[in-house]
Design brief:
The complex is a heterodimer.
Chain A lengths: L1 H31 L17 H8 L3 H29 L7 H9 L6 H12 L6 H8 L7 H4 L1 H26 L3 H9 L4 H28 L4 H5 L12 H11 L3 H30 L2
Helix pairs in contact in A: 1-13, 2-13, 3-8, 3-10, 3-12, 5-8, 8-10, 9-10, 10-13, 12-13
Chain B lengths: L1 E12 L2 E12 L3 E5 L6 H9 L6 E6 L2 E2 L10 E4 L11 H11 L4 H14 L15 H13 L5 E5 L7 H18 L2 E5 L3 H7 L2 E6 L2 E6 L1 H6 L4 H6 L6 E4 L2 E5 L2 E6 L2 E6 L12 E4 L4 E4 L5 E10 L4 E7 L4 E6 L10 E6 L5 E3 L14
Parallel strand pairs in B: 3-8, 3-9, 6-7, 7-8
Antiparallel strand pairs in B: 1-2, 1-4, 4-5, 9-10, 11-15, 12-13, 13-14, 15-21, 16-20, 17-18, 17-20, 18-19
Classes of the chains: A mainly alpha, B alpha+beta.
Bound molecules: adenosine-5'-triphosphate and magnesium ion (MG).
Amino acid sequence: MKRSITRLLMAPSVIMLLVWMIIPLSMTIYFSTIRYNLLYPGQNNFVGWMNFEFFITDPGFIPAVSNTLILLLSVLIITVVVGVMLSALIDKPFFGQGIVRVLLISPFFIMPTVNALIWKNMMMNPVYGIFAWISESLGFEPIDWLSSYPLMSVIIMVSWQWLPFAILVFVTALQSQDTEQKEAAQMDGATGWHIFRYLTIPHLARPIAVVVMIETIFLLAVFAEIFVSTGGGPGYDSTNLAYLIYNQALLQYDVGVASAGGLFAVLLANIVAIFLIRAVGKNLTV
Amino acid sequence: MTYLAITDLQKHYDNYHALRGINLSISEGEFVVFVGPSGCGKSTLLRTIAGLESSTGGSIDLDGRDITEVASSKRDLAMVFQSYALYPHMTVADNLSFALRLAKVSDAEIKDKVRSVSASLQLDALLERKPKELSGGQRQRVAIGRAIVRQPKVFLFDEPLSNLDAALRVQMRLELARLHKKLGTTMIYVTHDQVEAMTLADRVVILNAGQIEQVGTPLELYRQPNSRFVAEFIGTPKMNLIPANRIVRNEDTLSIDLLGQQIPFPANRLKGPLPDSVVIGIRPEHMSLVETDGDLTGRIELVEHLGSEAYAHLQLSSDQTIIIKAPARTELKDGQEVNIKIDVSEIILFNESDRVISVIPEEA
Ligand SMILES: Nc1ncnc2c1ncn2[C@@H]1O[C@H](COP(=O)(O)OP(=O)(O)OP(=O)(O)O)[C@@H](O)[C@H]1O
Ligand SMILES: [Mg+2]
């Protein structure tokens, strides 16, 4: 009796959520199986796996998948490694600690679009960018980052965007680290490095896992930075899956293939998630 | 022979003078206990010895080496913390062997040492567990084991038993005493528990407001404190302090006027000149209730029965309250008038500046 009431009361929200999820998903699945090009309206016949075939055999597909994974892994590694090091560095009190912390966190408040524009125009521009100015003052040829190293440029921008998040999580975690444990280790003859290696890193295992999970969700779908800066090019050099799908849907007006791509992205996200949960999830139970 | 020498040690925090010139020498193998009221600087002194706080003056020498500026990792001391501070991600075995692994001791030797320490502390069955899977007492033993395994020059303990329940505390106290006997290593122990101080210590250091008030064996501090602070600090319940009205000398006896009653006191137990007024100190266990012929009279306010004994709180004619130890099965009633007999040989006299001006009978 009681149980059915609770179920009844929960039903609206559960149904709401289901509908919320099911409708877009089933529409995507439906679109992915029909011919649906905005340039040829009315010709919406069932095509089976054809859209998937088109998407997978697209010349941009292999680069897009590998770029997505390279982007994801590079940014994860950079933000976690640099984040842990910077947080450990600013953990000890020093003059101006508050300001340094605010400065380190602030990139997180900048919109991805603005972030990409700043990097594109102020940092990486081969004529008046700061990097170009540095190379020139040192007597080197300025580098046109966006066209010479497009994927790396995107990685730099996205890392800059996400590093503050990692630092925020790690700094908070470090503040909860027990000082007596560190003192005990000191008495046991541990150097600063030993304490970092044997106490701080294990202490950060859980926050690292959290950062990896959350960043993965967002990094699989990086779009604004690519759209604003490299536009996926040159060629497919900085195109990731999200950008390729956008390309299919809006530049080539092929909603069917874009839907198939979307489903493939869902599949990839799940594979990556399972892999990452296996790899870092173990730490969550420590 | 001095093993650990602390000379004029000073510690200033930003705006607080926490250690004000500490001088102390400790011999090898001694068990020294620091006691004092909260905030007097016990932990600060211990942490300064450990090198976890830097001193702002004075020096510390250990075994002939000046360690004042040496990093704590190089001082060869081991510390047991109040919170145990076990490494949460390591098993008990790894906790025990951490220092040895850092010192690059060979695997075989590490195994040997861990085994012998875990056997002596009954930790064998727990070696593969993580700290969070242990009880408080077991954690405590791991923390002690982690200190022992390194065979340091001095053990430092900062209130190691204060997180344990009463029964376990008594048991661990005994274990510590046994351990000290077995290892013979110098130990410095901070506590605010008098019983721990009295039972464990070879010598007790009483600290007050960043200074050493008195150093001595537990019995010395109990019998011949040299200030009112020490007299009141040592002993439970506290020593009774009763201001005397007048004190006069008749040949070799002093006559102390205590609320109208004359109490004779041997003149040779007075050191220094005769002051105008004194406070007499007498412990609850050195007074008794008598039918007639008492030195004082009082009215019973309250009797606390502890089972093995009872403490009677009495109000004197001056309205002051004192405590007297009474036999366990006392028939005392609240409000009853009683006569009090004072054991004169246990009286301690204090002058106006709270210094002791009497000596104990054996020394007279
Ligand atoms: N980091 C600090 N900065 C400023 N003052 C401090 C600091 N640490 C301790 N103090 C002060 O130094 C004094 C001694 O502190 P300490 O911790 O040594 O006391 P304690 O005798 O161990 O007391 P307890 O029995 O409560 O542990 C205290 O008055 C305390 O307020
Ligand atoms: Mg303390």
